[in-house]
Amino acid sequence: MDTGRLVAALDAYALPLRAALERGASQGFRRVELSALAPELDPGACGESARRHLRKFLADLGLEPAGLSLRFPGAGLADPASAEQRLDRLRAALELASSLGARQASVTLSGFDDARSAGLAEEALRATAELADRVGTPVCVLDPRAPLDQCAQRVRACRCPALLVAMDTAWHADTGAAARPIGAAYLRDVRRVGPRLEEVDFGAGEVDFHSVLAGLEGAGGGATLILRPEAGGRVDALVRGREYIASLSRR
């Protein structure tokens, strides 16, 4: 595959935004995903002047902002204590994505199978679809608690072309019938240690990347492939991931 398509998730560097952008460029990445939860991208701190400087900084480094992510903890947008504030942050992130020329955004949203949060989760999903449609920036919904086919069914039921599914190979291994609405695929490797998952180097875990990538390619290859290792912010983790994915096409 063309590894130039691979996107570096900047959170993996565990650095301030500008330093992470410089690191990504120095490691040969040309497409990056910015965290919309980074302090530098807080709506109160990222006005038009800051956006203009960020666009120039990206251009000077030869970087394309492929997307923005909002990895809210817990139930994501369906958190009862902060649902309204998180939806406002999503709205601001979509406007920022449009301003920067980013292709899409992704956001966490869970709680559909919990009676205490199911109604709020459904409401948040509809609100997300409306925002994506109104702003014109596709939103990929990531639910780490549900099988991928269920995520896809919920997204399809919204009948919004700008609403897509995000998957993470730590939790979602089989693209199956869900593949066509997948807009973002986060790539990392894990192995099961008792009841929990432990992230490991690419190729050292249980994720069948051959099958995952083949499933996504078979569905038209439209998903954005994002390297997002979370184990410790190692300097070389993203590069090693790119090298591993590249090696698969040579086998």
Describe the 3D structure.
The structure is a single chain. By secondary structure, the protein is α/β, with parallel strands linked by helices. The protein has a single domain (3-248), classed as TIM Barrel, CATH 3.20.20. It is built from seven helices and ten strands. It has an eight-stranded parallel beta barrel, surrounded by five helices. Helix 2 (48-61) links the parallel strand 2 and strand 3. The chain starts with 6 loop residues before the first strand and ends with a helix. The model has no long low-confidence stretch (mean pLDDT 91).
In short:
By secondary structure, this protein is α/β, with parallel strands linked by helices. 37% of the residues lie in helices and 20% in strands.
Rg value: 17 Å
Structural class estimated from helices and strands? alpha/beta
Looking at the structure, what is the overall shape?
globular
Please count the helical segments. Answer: 7
The first-level CATH class name: Alpha Beta
Largest sheet: 8 strands, parallel, barrel
Strand content: 15-25%
> What is the subunit organization of this protein?
single chain
Overall residue-averaged pLDDT value: 91
CATH superfamily: Divalent-metal-dependent TIM barrel enzymes
**Secondary structure: helix percent:** 25-40%
Instruction: Compute the number of strand runs.
Output: 10
Any guess at the CATH architecture? Alpha-Beta Barrel
User: Unreliable runs, pLDDT <50, ≥5 residues?
Assistant: none
Strand order of the largest sheet: 1-2-3-4-5-6-7-10
C-alpha end-to-end distance = 11 Å
